[in-house]
């Protein structure tokens, strides 16, 4: 009987030790999973586009950026590597393909979309240095982050990216402030290093509960001055309204306009949204393509968004109506309007 008791006692010791060891190993693996300081993400996209009011010959398209090819076309492949430490981190965001090249004219099919390091100086202060996407406007370069696949004129003719130093401050639970010193930039230079040697620009953003007032100034070295409002409101659990308005001026030449983005979620997998935009040029800005000073354009873009796993399919119908002739109809005659249809596929990983 004594021998049996001793054997059971030893078994109990081994059982308890095994439980502790298993718990320790599980906790260690869980901690390692939680850390994961390095992450890889990205997107790929492609589309088919055709004109409805004119022939596809000559690739006639709206004057805004991206999604302007006829037939089947590629967007871009976007690969983002980010490393997050306790207080510091870095992001390398590379893009390949036509959309990337249009964004900033990269070399050999590669474009450094973003490349920056940051330091969380305190709980409410963050410093970022390098190349980062612009804080101006409602839309961004990546199609995965936009509701509409084609882009607005307001987005297309503001800067896409900046190279410089910015400081973000969380002033309170609702208020935020961003201040930046950057290289001079415009729609053709996009913040690339040395765009205007010896000249710099200043940027600022004041945020309140998801509403942002943005400023850019470079002393008329390139873009000049731009003020921009971006925001939106959840009007219900399924209905969202986005807003954007901007004014840009460089010694009397520039643009102004506004856009609304109502979006309705009809189910967990399908949403439908409209972008209504008015965009007007000051002087001979040359964005719309009429060849006439002080031209304007109204654009209505209706987009559906269907998601299955990581794939999003977006059918889109767009109408551009200009104040002066900018397009051609099916008979080859000058026209003030162009209607087009596209369907895009975007995969995020």
Number of strands: 18
Overall mean confidence score, pLDDT: 88
* H-E string: HEEEHEEHEEEEEEEEEEEEE
User: How would you sum up the major sheet?
Assistant: 16 strands, antiparallel, barrel
Uncertain ranges: 1-7, 9-27, 29-33, 187-191
Spatial shape: globular
Annotated CATH homologous superfamily: Porin
Largest sheet: spatial strand order: 1-2-3-4-5-6-7-8-9-10-11-12-13-14-15-18
Please identify the top-level CATH class.
Answer: Mainly Beta
Strand residue percentage: over 45%
Helix content: 10-25%
Summing up helix and strand content along with how strands pair, one would put the structural category as: mainly beta
CATH architectural group = Beta Barrel
Count of discrete alpha- or pi-helical segments spanning 4 or more residues: 3
Distance, first to last CA = 64 Å
What is the CATH topology classification name? Answer: Porin
Number of domains: 1
Query: How large, in whole angstroms, is the Cα Rg?
Result: 26 Å
Protein name: Putative beta-barrel porin-2, OmpL-like. bbp2
Keywords: Signal
Organism: Cellulophaga tyrosinoxydans
Pfam families: BBP2
Description:
It comes from Cellulophaga tyrosinoxydans. It is a single chain. With 349 residues, this protein is mainly beta. The chain has one domain: Porin (Beta Barrel). Helix content is 13%, strand content 52%. The chain has 3 helices and 18 strands. The N and C termini lie far apart (64 Å).
Keywords:
single chain; 349 residues; mainly beta; Porin; 16-stranded antiparallel beta barrel; two-stranded antiparallel ribbon; 18 strands; 13% helix; 52% strand; globular
